[in-house]
């Protein structure tokens, strides 16, 4: 009797675990966002692994050389968000050689060709060339809502202007601490202000980019959803018009004050509550 009961419980457990309809299983997995929980789910059985692969929306690749774009697409063909990291943290302190690697080109080519649902891309400590950005914009400009070039290098302001002009659905543009070759001053901000009305976050904090108060004010005026603005150095007294114009701005960082004719090097952060 005891053996039969135990056998019945095992059969019932298998039915409850593996007899869930795909539709219901996919809906449930949609609420599981923690990557560790997702990994555990994918190990239950091959069927659950396939459902996880088709329903996974975000993946973080902690080391870009740990896999290939082809393998990632084969495993998760429906990704909407991807975060890639290349160079180790030591690169921030000039502790690795310039020829270490970290090129985003292989990833950009594959992402542009195959990841048909991709809407958010975060590249961290990678070398992103102007050609990479051109390729990405040609393929994804109509659907990108978030682009983060985080501590990246290799591109210039004309490429940023191309992003601003072409990606009209872009809600987040993040360039913090990136090394950018500035060739056209701040024309990219004017492009962003005149081409995008849905922008919510713009961050070019701790970069060499410069922004005129006039273009920043135009950006705030035209982008009615802008909540976060983090800029490089700019004298705070020149931004009075910007703050008077801002209606939805909640967070501001950057800028500098002037003390007896000498600029103060420390940046400031101001929280603007509406």
From TrEMBL:
Residues 77-123 form the Transport inhibitor response domain. InterPro entries: COI1_F-box, LRR_dom_sf, Transp_inhibit. Pfam families: F-box_5 (PF18511), Transp_inhibit (PF18791). Residues 19-58 form the COI1 F-box domain. PANTHER family: CORONATINE-INSENSITIVE PROTEIN HOMOLOG 2 (PTHR13318:SF28), PARTNER OF PAIRED, ISOFORM B-RELATED (PTHR13318). This is Coronatine-insensitive protein 1. The lineage of its organism: Eukaryota, Viridiplantae, Streptophyta, Embryophyta, Tracheophyta.
């Amino acid at each position: 009797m005891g053996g039969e009961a135990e056998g019945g419980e095992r059969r019932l457990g298998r039915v409850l675990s593996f007899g869930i309809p795909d539709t219901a299983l996919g809906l449930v997995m949609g609420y599981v966002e923690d990557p560790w929980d997702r990994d555990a789910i994918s190990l239950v059985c091959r069927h659950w692994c396939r459902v996880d692969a088709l329903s996974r929306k975000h993946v973080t690749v902690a080391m870009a050389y740990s896999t290939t774009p082809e393998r990632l697409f084969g495993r998760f063909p429906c990704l909407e968000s991807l975060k890639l990291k290349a160079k180790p943290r030591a690169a921030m302190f000039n502790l690795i050689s310039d020829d270490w690697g970290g090129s985003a080109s292989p990833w950009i080519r594959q992402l542009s060709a195959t990841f048909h649902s991709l809407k958010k891309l975060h590249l961290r400590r990678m070398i992103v060339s102007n050609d990479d950005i051109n390729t990405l914009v040609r393929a994804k400009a109509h659907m990108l809502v978030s682009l983060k070039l985080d501590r990246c290098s290799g591109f210039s302001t004309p490429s940023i202007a191309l992003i601003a002009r072409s990606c009209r659905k872009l809600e987040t543009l993040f360039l913090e601490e990136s090394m950018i070759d500035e060739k056209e001053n701040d024309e990219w901000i004017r492009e962003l202000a005149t081409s995008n009305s849905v922008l919510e976050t713009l961050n070019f904090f701790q970069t060499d980019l410069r922004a005129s108060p006039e273009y920043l004010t135009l950006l705030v005026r035209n982008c009615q959803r802008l909540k976060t603005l983090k800029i490089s150095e700019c004298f705070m007294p020149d931004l009075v018009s910007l703050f008077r114009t801002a209606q939805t701005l909640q967070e501001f960082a950057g800028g500098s004050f002037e003390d007896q004719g000498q600029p103060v090097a420390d940046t400031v952060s101001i929280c603007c509550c509406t």
